[in-house]
């Protein structure tokens, strides 16, 4: 079973097909209605076509039928296969238990924050904090706007809210430390640190 080729979009598409065969447009509308467009990127229908093409090559979905409509392009209806049902459950297990091996851009950028002047770095972080605050408000609205919906179907928004709130709190702390001078740097200081922690290598001849 090709479990190593799992993807978030592929998993969500497979679970939509659990309900029965449907076409790309139908999958896209279902994902949007269920709020899954906040979980995976389905804004571009081409990405769904690509995902379905890959799932078909893996033997996880198959063409159920082609609906021909006069004056309109043919509409391909996809169905999940037996292997697809097994793979979907295994992908779900793996994604739930695994911490992943992704390398987010922000983590890479924050690791070399000193590449900017402190005021410049602070300004960029303030912009990020503003964007996170908007996302957090949206998550709060999503949770508050569905009072009758069982919690099971809002867990992704709970998680989003928790992660956004934690990152925003941390980010505001860093911004405050830079603003107050508790976290700062200069070219001279960076040079001193580099010299202290990365002394120049000496050859055997130089040591003698």
List keywords for this structure.
208 residues, mainly alpha, Arc Repressor Mutant, subunit A, 3-stranded antiparallel β-sheet, 9 helices, 59% helix
How do the helices and strands line up, and which of them pair or pack?
Elements (H helix, E strand, L loop, with lengths): L7 H10 L4 E2 H10 L11 H13 L3 E7 L7 E6 L1 H16 L7 H6 L7 H27 L10 H26 L6 H11 L6 H4 L1
Antiparallel strand pairs: 1-3, 2-3
Helix pairs in contact: 1-4, 2-3, 6-7
Kindly describe this structure.
The chain is mainly α and 208 residues long. It folds into two domains: 3-97, Orthogonal Bundle (Arc Repressor Mutant, subunit A); 105-197. It has nine helices and three strands, in the order αβααββαααααα. It has helices at residues 8-17, 24-33, 45-57, 82-97, 105-110, 118-144, 155-180, 187-197, 204-207; strands at 22-23, 61-67, 75-80. The chain has a three-stranded antiparallel sheet. The model has no long low-confidence stretch (mean pLDDT 89).
Count all strands and give the number.
3
Q: Gap between N and C termini, in Å?
A: 61 Å
DSSP helical segment count: 9
Largest sheet: 3 strands, antiparallel
Give the neighbour order of strands across the main sheet.
1-3-2
CATH-scheme architecture of the largest domain: Orthogonal Bundle
Strand % is 5-15%
Task: Please name the fourth-level CATH homologous superfamily of the largest domain.
Answer: Winged helix-like DNA-binding domain superfamily/Winged helix DNA-binding domain
Element-level helix/strand string: HEHHEEHHHHHH
Radius of gyration: 25 Å
**What fold name goes in the CATH topology slot of the largest domain?**
Arc Repressor Mutant, subunit A
Mean pLDDT over the residues: 89
What form results from the Cα inertia axes? elongated
Q: What structural class results from the helix and strand content?
A: mainly alpha
The number of distinct structural domains comes to: 2
Helix content: 55-70%
What is the top-level CATH class of the largest domain?
A: Mainly Alpha
Q: Segments where pLDDT lies below 50 for 5+ residues? A: none
